[in-house]
Amino acid sequence: METQKFSFKILGMTCASCSRINERNLSAVPGVQYASVNLGTNTAFVIADGTVTMDDLEKAVIKGGYRISLEMDDNAERKRYHQTKINWLISVTALLPLAALMVFHMLKRLPPVLHTMYPWIEIVLSTFIIFYTGRKTIRGAWIALTHSHTNMDTLIFLGALTAWLTSVLHLLSILKVLSLDLLSFGAIGAMIITLHLTGRFIESWLRDRASREIKALLSVQSREARLITSEGEFMIPITMLKPEQIVMVKPGERFPADGEVLEGIGSVDESMISGEPIPALKRPKDMITGGSLNITSPIKVTVTKVGEDTFLSKMIQLIQEAQGSKVPIQAFADLITLWFVPIIVVLALISGLTWFFFFPSLSPFLDHVRPVLPWILDTDSPLSFALFAFVSTMVIACPCALGLATPMALIAGTGLAAKKGLIIRNAEAIQTSKDIDIVLLDKTGTLTKGQPVVVQHTLDPEIAVLVASMESLSTHPLAKAVSLITDQRVPGITIEEKMGEGVGSIWESHRYFVGKPNHPEEYLRFYEAGQTVVEVLKDQTKVGYIVIEDPLREDSRQGIATLLKMGVTPVMVTGDQASAAQIVAEKVGIAQVFANTKPEEKLTILDSFRSQGKKIMMVGDGMNDAASLKGSDIGISIGSGTDLAIDNSDIIIVRGGISKVVDVIHIARTTFQVIRQNLFWAFIYNLVAIPLAMMGFLHPAIAESAMALSSITVVLNSLRIKSISSKGK
């Protein structure tokens, strides 16, 4: 049964536990083969058989208490960021006077009137902050609890609620309704919520920065197109465009869809798609990728692909799928976050109960530590200190840092790859690419441009026009190069093509033939240089020759040299003749060459290296290399907007050559290094902070600040991927 893919946003997630719950519920839907939920982008990616519908997936998400959105643009994310900012500002504005009053109250420096009014002011402002500005946190905690699971909001809300309840009980004691020896932590509860909102606000801003490359791709999509019809020009939404229609794109405008240049010559900036900074010159019959920027002159284009079929749309979809997938190293972190919140609640209860029942025995130890850590609560009330330790433990724990450690690094890594003209189709490719030992390289189209050009000819102008006209009708791979030696054409000419020999034609009672030389030894100097020679005969008499070359890609020599420096061995595997292959190998610096290989033989060579325990990357054009691309540890296709072979490869090079393979390995190594750093610091933070909180050494406000800082640190470290990768090169 044919498989289908779904990508959508999940609304309401706040931590790794939320993403884990959604992933579990989606995986449980009958027919779902793979489900991945990314906390960094709040997106889900699902592969399922044909029986699964979007309604089935939506029910699974709703089952966990969350909602979905099919809008993959950033409008919803921007709106949420704006609301978070406003909420945070309101909370800070209300907290500042409360915090000032709390400090003066603790120092007993308040005027008598304010001292008497402080419990009332504290409960009013803390109630407003906790239950109004913290309403989304409460809602997140409530959703989790009512759907039989827990999340980060559970910890924050329970900690803030406990602190707020102490304020209520303290006020009731003042009013003689109750008789409790209990300090009020209401202001601390308000601080917990405000600091939590501060962390969310900063984290949201940093996450927005981390995903800017994919958002930049979305921004290059045109909204309207200038349609050319027999009745004139009309501006229409690009959603209304159809194949075969003609559009006009003026300088400074972006091409609305994929197409073929019909009329006009001009420079086109494809940097947002290909990563190449130099504009490309486009002529009639050249292909145009939607989203490219027209720089110099008006160009008419015949639309070939629209909507989801365009190259840019496919590229964005593949990047979003990669950012929604996971690397194997994340499995351990996911397992921990699944049980994290319930364990923290238990530890917080153990801490609180221990201090309550054994406070007289333990409090002398605090007297020795308090001079070093002055924020430790100074009280004779076992209940007050028990609640102090309970709240600190609840809010110090941070599953968010663990949950964000991998997805934020993947967002940064795949975003950087997209900017460099690389599409990493799945996140696992990043973990595998860092360990590559050998890169198998096809020659034609990989090390060379795969676009033969005429470098020399000895034809008279009249003969050149005739030969170009003949070759323009041929389907031979070298014919296009020969046909471009002149723009002029002879009308009405016909040809007879002899497979493997050349093309012939009768013109003005003379027989012309263009093909293999009768005496190839005459052109030995060209063959030794890796070039091809085509001879032109008129009535069986040679009238000239044409020298053709498939030039090296500009980055092949430097790319091979860099691979060797990185400890990666390049090996050429090509179907070309040994002599031609060896010449190219010597030019670029490759020592090991396999020539005259058939597609199935390439797979055998690949397996022989793998039997030596090597990790293999295969780089090819995605056509005749399909089997070896699929069989390698990492398959990389070198393609373009018109010939992407995405089914058989893990990574696609949109534009460029071997330098992009170097980029892949640099990005993979850098991204994985950052993932390991993120996970290490997230684990260390929790291992150190939680015991300190249980011992009562951390003030709840400090604990919540540290919790927020741990998540922010993970995001900031992930943003370093771009700069580290650049320095690595």
Describe this structure in words.
This protein is of the alpha+beta class and 729 residues long. It is 51% helix and 18% strand. It contains 25 helices and 26 strands. The strands form 5 sheets. Strands 14-26-25-24-15-22-23 form a 7-stranded mixed sheet, sandwiched between helices. About 1% of the residues have low confidence.
Q: Separation of termini?
A: 45 Å
Mean pLDDT: 82
The amount of helix comes to: 40-55%
- Fraction of residues in β-strands: 15-25%
Largest sheet: 7 strands, mixed
Alpha-carbon Rg, integer: 34 Å
Q: How many beta-strand segments?
A: 26
Kindly report the spatial arrangement of strands forming the biggest sheet.
14-26-25-24-15-22-23
The shape, in one word, is elongated
In terms of structural class, how would the helical and strand content be classed? alpha+beta
Low-confidence stretches: 641-645
Tell me which oligomeric state these chains represent: single chain
The DSSP helix count reads 25
